[in-house]
Amino acid sequence: MTTILVTGGTGTLGRLVTERLRADGHEVRVLSRHAQPYAVDLRKGGPGLDAAVAGVDTIVHCASSPGGGDEEAAGHLLTAARNAGVRHLVYISIVGVDRVPFGYYKSKLAVERLIEKSGLGWTVLRTTQFHDLLVRVFGILSKSPVMLLPAGVKDQPIEVAEVADRLAELALGSPAGRVEDMGGPEVRTLDALARAYLAATGRRRLVVNVPLWGKAYRAFRSGGHLTPGRAVGKGTFGGYLGRRGGGRRGV
Fold first, then answer.
1. Which of these, 123, 86, 77, lies nearest to 4 by C-alpha position?
2. pLDDT, position 251
């Protein structure tokens, strides 16, 4: 039986990874800012982090914050992992972090580089955006009578459960470096995805595509965050919306 630490283990992805690993009979420690007994803020590190990694064979690093601090958090985690003799660190990243000059993507790429140079055995998996993320974004944008979307941008959302399955598989294997990307089964315009969301939630909104500017927008518009050649996901966005039951039951 392997002892595995999942950072961000109470989040959307980390919770599912934890469930899959435990179902396979492995001892799994969940690290997050509030999950006892391993309640640790990775941005601060400290003795709690050392205790969390002690005796751990593999770390699955799912903890992340679009608000910043990922590089600092990774630095603390990697130092603790080296000191504890951790064999393998698995990291979840995003397709296009090396092609799209968006702030959060730059941070994810920087963490990849830290892991590569850490001296630990490592595996990095990049995926496209989760269905859950699109629903959260569309939920915010649809609060207004006019739903504004960046013109000309497509997306390739993937089912988070499928990513969790892959991460659990990688965690139980040997360090593999950068593995093949995972993309959702369909590449669709944000306009089409937003209209599917509105139909599923019974909302009527005027959808307006707005041209933007800047290098990040141009990179998104050119599809730098997509991986059509690795459309390995099975669950579609429409299927996800159907399972949720739409806004009539509280999207």
1. 86
2. 38
**pLDDT value of residue 201:** 94
Measured from the Cβ of residue 80, the count of other Cβ atoms closer than 10 Å reads 25
The helix or strand, by DSSP H or E, that contains position 116, with its residue range, turns out to be: helix 103-116
Measured at the CA of 185, the angle between CA 181 and CA 188, to 5 degrees, comes to 105
Q: What is the dihedral of CA 84, 120, 74, 33, to 10 degrees?
A: -40
- Dist. CA 187–CA 189, nearest whole Å: 7
Q: How is the chain split among helix, strand and coil, in percent rounded to 5?
A: 40, 20, 40
Residues 86/56, Cβ–Cβ less than 8 Å: yes
- Angle 175-179-181 from CA coordinates, rounded to 5°: 150
Residue numbers of the chain with a pLDDT score lower than 50 = 246-251
DSSP per residue, 18-84: HHHHHHTT-EEEEEBSS-TT-B--TTT--HHHHHHHTT-SEEEE----TTS-HHHHHHHHHHHHHHH
Burial class (CB in 10 A: 0-12, 13-18, 19+), 59: buried
What three-state secondary structure class fits 153?
coil
CA 170, 225, 211 angle in degrees (round to 5)?
Answer: 160
Number of domains in the chain: 1
Nearest to 94 by CA among 58, 62, 128: 128
- The model's pLDDT over 23-54, given as tens digits with 9 standing for 90+, comes to 999 999 999 998 899 999 999 988 899 999 99
Residue among 231, 88, 24 at smallest CA distance from 223: 231
Beta bridge partners of 148: 208
Range of the domain at 233: 3-249
Q: Which CATH number do you get for residue 162?
A: 3.40.50.720
